[in-house]
Specification:
Layout: H1 5-22, H2 32-56, H3 62-85, H4 94-116, H5 125-143, H6 154-185
């Protein structure tokens, strides 16, 4: 079991996502938002834990490399959709949420294509930081209604963090596309014009 622990944590995060979504209907008077926050943070912690364990024990696998970003995107996308549904994200604030979702779809599509030509792209440090900012923003927006009588500023802080996450998302998305567009267009497989006519 130990050899498969990182992948098991990833599967657990995927399985936890629908439970996390369902928890949004938990009654507020019974601590509903705290339950949602707890599930979200547990899922986010497994994201850090599975990667850390895989690197620490040299247990990285192709299955894990494929499933981990899928699990992350499912969690973040589900959280944003539910926050919009619950009216915690509304008006112009939908823009950063859409930016984050669109970027994840674009990068997922590129990753899937690059996998077919056996090209793996490591996650950059700024991409990891972007994910941390996303998690912080979403966590604040989730719990804000439960403590607005004490920390009324928390929702606004979550909105600011979400805009910050969107900016980082745009930057990392552009960098990812720029770094891999040659692979997608097939330019790496084409002979250079000056070499095309050479003979050995």
């Amino acid at each position: 079991m130990g050899d498969h622990l990182p992948n098991l944590l990833t599967f657990a995060r995927i399985a936890l996502t629908p439970v996390f979504v369902a928890a949004f209907w938990w009654p507020a008077e019974m601590g509903g938002r705290w339950v949602v926050l707890a599930l979200f943070l547990i899922a986010a912690i497994t994201d850090y834990a599975d990667g850390w364990i895989a690197r620490r024990r040299n247990m990285e696998s192709r299955l894990g490399a494929m499933l981990d970003p899928i699990a992350d995107k499912l969690l973040i996308a589900s959280a944003l959709v539910m926050l919009v549904y619950k009216d915690d994200i509304r008006g112009f604030v939908i823009i950063p949420a859409l930016v984050i979702l669109a970027r994840e779809i674009l990068v997922s599509g590129m990753r899937e294509f690059l996998a077919t030509i056996a090209i793996q792209v490591p996650v950059s440090s700024i991409s990891k930081f972007k994910t941390v900012v996303q998690v912080i923003a979403i966590a604040m927006l989730i719990v804000a209604p439960a403590i607005e009588h004490v920390w009324g500023w928390l929702h606004q802080a979550g909105i600011v963090a979400l805009w910050g996450a969107a900016v980082l998302t745009l930057y990392t998305g552009f960098s990812y596309v720029q770094a891999n567009v040659a692979h997608v267009s097939g330019e790496h497989a084409r002979p250079r014009p000056r070499e095309a006519g050479r003979t050995s």
